[in-house]
Queue: 3 jobs
Job 1
Amino acid sequence: MSNLLEVHKVVKQYGDYVALNEVSLNVPKGSIYGLLGPNGAGKTSLIRIINQITLPDSGEIILDGEKLQPKHVQTIGYLPEERGLYTSMKVGEQCLYLAQMKGLSKAEAKVQLEYWFDRLGIQGWWNKKIQELSKGMAQKIQFVVCVLHKPKLLIFDEPFSGFDPVNANVIKDEILALKEQGATIIFSTHRMESVEELCDHIALIHKSNKLIEGKLSDVKRQFRTNSFEVGILTDNVEGLMYDITQKFTVSPASFKSLNDDLKLDIQIGNATPNELLNILTQRGQVTHFVEKIPSVNDIFIQTVTG
Amino acid sequence: MSIISLIIKREFIAKVRNKSFVVMTFLSPLLFVAIAGFIGYLSSMKAETKQIAIHDETGLFANDFVKQNKKEAAFKYLDLSQIDTKALKDSITNERFDGLIIIPKTNNLKELESKIEFISNNSPSISFIEKTQDVIAEKITKINLEKAKLDTLAIQKAQSAVNIHLIKASGEESLKGLNEIKIGIGGAFGYLIMMFIIIYGNMVMRSVIEEKTNRIIEIIISSVKPFQLMIGKIIGTSLAGLLQFIIWAIIGLGLMFAASAFFGVNVGPTTRISPELMQSAQNEMSGSVQMYISELWNLPIASIIIGFVIYFIGGYFLYSSFYAAIGAAVDNQTDSQQFLLPILMPLILSVYIGFFTVVNDPHGTIAVVFSMIPLTSPIVMLMRLPFGVPWWQIAISVSLLFATFFLVVWFAAKIYRIGILMYGKKPTWKELYRWLKY
């Protein structure tokens, strides 16, 4: 799979402060790419550089095989974290204006707007002023403005903030639908569960450096601890413990189970899961056997604090 | 280019649709006319006639004062030389009279010159005192002349009134009064530019701050360059401003005509003059009016109008770039004060220079220097233009203005670019300087 966006050794300095230190990223075409990092890591700086709001001090950015140029703003849709609209302008006019700035003709913009307003169930808003809308309603308009010109690359910075769960779900489905249609999506958020749910690639930026990048499953494999959660029903607890502690590191675990079983966390190291299973089955009834997969949250906290 | 025109259009429509813009556009000329009418009404009201008592012990002057009594005059003189001064002084304190002139008896007229007193409760106006002094002095002079046995009539005839004609080296004749017209034209244009810069520069600044506080700015500059946004904003706002000025001019003229018809404000001379005097005056006047008109046509009208347009554009753009940069640097309007002062200073300075220095000496060093300095040239040079300015000075001034304009726009765009994405910080001058280097 080729990359839609390649960031090569981008450096950005503000005075003495280094916001981005030779950061490189590869965003595959058609992926949902989670851009993670703690506050102040440099995510927004990077996103602004991709949007050509600021220029990098050094390094280059390739979009769809071409060096990033001013014309590319028309192929990018950006939903910034700090977003707003002209409060005293009418919804329809405002959307037309912003769409035209992205290179759409007025007629095209109108067609697209009607499609999206219809899709999100906000047809009646055309003549309302933004100041008459609630925050969540304004967010919907901003989402429409961001996707209106059918950009190849979409950049969402905390897209779900301000939405109630129902509308957050609507937006999530729209993002997935856009991906189906072939758009590439960069997704920056602190909500790890939505990263887990949506992203197939992630990158983690910390203190101006990129620490992790790759397919979500690859990253998780990289962070696997080779430990298993085990539930077992046995009469001879001592015998079982003797057997497994010979080979593996064991600690008590807690998970939900319908059985009154012994719950263990077992680190198998270089051994195979089967070796563990053999020992367990000799000593009792295995009711639960699951590899502990690190969550994005675990990976994030481990990388940032470690 | 089409994006800039899109921005210009939006800014223009946003400004024009704004309620306060509509209200201001239609209310200010009404207010202006109402105030002008009120002032006109006040000044047309007759002032109370003041009663001035004269106690003339010499008996020489009282008649000259009383002779001046006329209907509707501001002062009425009463010869009360027979009444005792003490009683008169009391009547002043009782406010029966507004003033009392006491002319004592002296040994000779020379002594009298410094012995005359005026008593009143409120201090009199300077013009009244001068007038009184003139009446007495004239009389004393007359008496002195008669004493010296000189023919006063012959002396009157011998006195001459000189009227110097002003002629330029290029051969055109000019009128003295024309200088005032020149100052009027230059001053009006200069003042107009200053007002426009302050009003619409502020509007540019407010609109930049609005985008910042709305947080729409990041969405917009992911589509357009900050520079395009800034220029579009400045042009759009100035077009809205021009529209407002044009509407004001039309409404103002209409209302002025209506008001002058309604209040019956007399434009012509109010005092009645004998027909012969009128005839001769008319001949004289029509002669000079013709000359004024022809002189007006001889003014460098083309260069004044072209100059107005050039300096208007240059000056307005120069200053609004400053305003835009300030708007970008601050989060709200109250924070803008510290940066606004240095902008207002040269504007005010140039108006003062225009009205004091240029008027006295249109081609003096100070006037020339300040008509070259870009921050003051739009106003000072415009005020000099009607007096005729050598083309090379205009060339230097205009090229300096536009060179500075491009420099300032470049700097302002840098501050703008950084500033619009900065929140929560009240920037210092030092910080602004650092932004320039980013």
Job 2
Amino acid sequence: MIQVTDNHDVVTIQLTGRFDFRVIKDFQELLTREPRTWVVDLSAVDYVDSSALGMLLLLRDRVRGDAQRVQLRGVHGQPREVLVMAKFDRMFKLE
Amino acid sequence: MDEPGTLTAWIDTALAKIISDLGRARSLLKDAMSRLLETFTRLREQLLQERTLYEVTLQEVNGTAGDVGLVGVLRDVLSRCVDDMVRIGTSSVKIMMEVESLRGHTSKVAVRGQQIEKIASTTRMLSLNARIEAQRIGNAGAVFRVVADEIKSLANESGELSRAIREALAVQSASLAQTSTAVAKLASSDLDHAVTSNKKLDETIAKLAAMSARSLDIFARVQAETASALQALQFEDMLTQLLQSISDKLEIVRTACKAGAIDKLAELDRRIHRDVVTQHSLGVGTVELF
């Protein structure tokens, strides 16, 4: 499940449960927006797959690789292990 | 034979036997010590070879300054595997998004097709009305009747074409849906296995490091023990000399027991009390070299 809060400057994406290919359509719509900062809240996410990493990389491309403009919040458990192993902690601001 | 003479002869024989036994003991000891020395020397060499081989193997596994080693290669393979999975995931997500866009466009075109079909249907109705009107006005409406028939024919063709396009779009839409499902499978690779493998690799490296430290410690201790044994075996010379000295002193006793030796007792006593070896243990001591 995905919930989006948009205050123009910051778009907060709150995900719940599994972060996988089922939210690709939502992300496609989100990628048309141009906020200053993206915040992806993963505190309620307990699983990510390779498509989730792909979506995060597309968000990063959207801000031309500026790590400060994509923040990953509440990263824990399996998502943290996967993100760290894929070296995403060097590409994103992990909180 | 008188009693002192018998005793002297017996003591002389006994001493000769003891001296002979001591000679055998010295010979056996020398032989045994020599073999032990050879064995421990070979053991020390083999230990050195073993340790060198072990250290080379460890370097092959853990790597050195210029070489990443087996562990490095495994980490690199795992890292590349994860990179590839992420790359495939990203590309698949892009493809899925493109497919979704195409499906959206297809739906829009299908709606336009339905609109065209509706226009064709309306046109058919209009041509029918025109034909009825042309019929009603008789011969004067003959030309309009022909035009109305042509319009009806065009409307039919247009409707048929729109239906064909709509059917083709339905096939395309189904095909895009299948593509989307297939790409979704490609996009969603489970990375848990890679995470587990990485953890196992870390655990194995830690175990290997602990085992290496323990093995190197055992090697060092065995080497120290071997060195100590070799050092102890080097006291064989001292022991041989001591046994030789005992034999010599017994010979002096034999000489002292013989007739006419009473005048030489002072000299014999001096020789008896001369120690060639001052050592009482395997620690520091002196050996009188002959």
Job 3
Amino acid sequence: MSIWIQLPTHFNFDDLVSEARAGRFNPEAFAQSVALDMSRTQFVGIGAAACLKALALRYQDGWPEGECLAMRHGGQDCISYLRRMDFFVDDIRWCVPEEEARQCRHDESGRFVPLQKPLTDHDSAIVAKRAVECFQGLDARIAASLKYAVSEIIDNALQHAGFRHGAVVGAQAYPNMADRPIDVVVADCGIGIRQHLSQHPLYRSLTDDAEALRIALTPNVTGVYRHRAAGERPDPQASENQGIGLSVVNSLARRNAGRLVVWSGQAIYDSKQGIAPIPVAWPGTVVFLRLPTRLQVFHREIVDEIHVPRASSGKRLGFE
Amino acid sequence: MKTIKVKDIVQDDSVLGRYRGGELRRLAVEALQQEPRVRFDFDGILLITQSAADEFIGRLRRYDEPLLDRIAFASCSEDVSHMLQWAMDNAFSVSERQAALGIDD
């Protein structure tokens, strides 16, 4: 017997978060056999679609054998949109006939990229490139900074989350809005930021998701660590990367009047509001990024500001 | 000296992500087992991300620094050379930061 989850009339990423804050949408509900009631829903955004898909992927293995994800809807426009976004295909057991799922596929160029499911590190660059190319005619310098940001957040999910299905990525361009933004969502149902950081000996005692988010947004923090034998002293130099990816993306969003939202466990960061607790946990990490395509500050300037080596050898690479 | 054309490897104008950076590092190590020097030709590459540069250059500096003296970098745009050098200079910035915070064990 499935539990029906009633989705609201308007359901974009912000609506999903508002519903979660109010306790009306709980990702953990997907642990049981659920069915989506979208009969009242008129609009679904790319962020909410990516999140729903990630949750279904995460939990469907635990559903009773033969169960599929049912949906109640009235064939409204948002259902056509979800079909175009490849919401109903891939490896989720939807109770939606395949021919019905296919009927609304059309040319994707110009505005959006259907939901992607990068699985390995190798897929990260391909999906990042595709996401940015949904906005055609961008200045090369702006396209490079967008690609930089999108690649970093996808890379983070694939490198650190440990989600069996990789990540679910969606991108949508809004060329008619004032600052012509692009929205990118990367949703995984992996180990989450706190658990990732706690792999590093320095953060092993971390118990608070909000504190984990604060640390993750700080430059030069990483949970990637080359483990030593049991009993040996941890070596800070064994940190295996620089841990600046998320902080650069955050600065890029903030300084260009964009927005970064990161929800992991029971804490959520919004670049417009800061870090706050949230009553229901996201089982993994969701990153929502909105960047205008009229950037004033580029990734290189931001990376430069983090450039504070005190023990640099001063050695130049062999540039010809 | 063997020349590796980066654009042929990544099939794009950008080197994005750790996987690609690791691929370049592996090619460098492999080539330097056969040859005294190797050249990476970045012609046509507009962007390399920090994570890719760290996986390529930063990791070599952390674990195999002498190899870096045997690698030449050709046809780098200003942005690309800047990011590669950044990765070189910042290879130990995590440990520096931890030391600054008084965290060393």
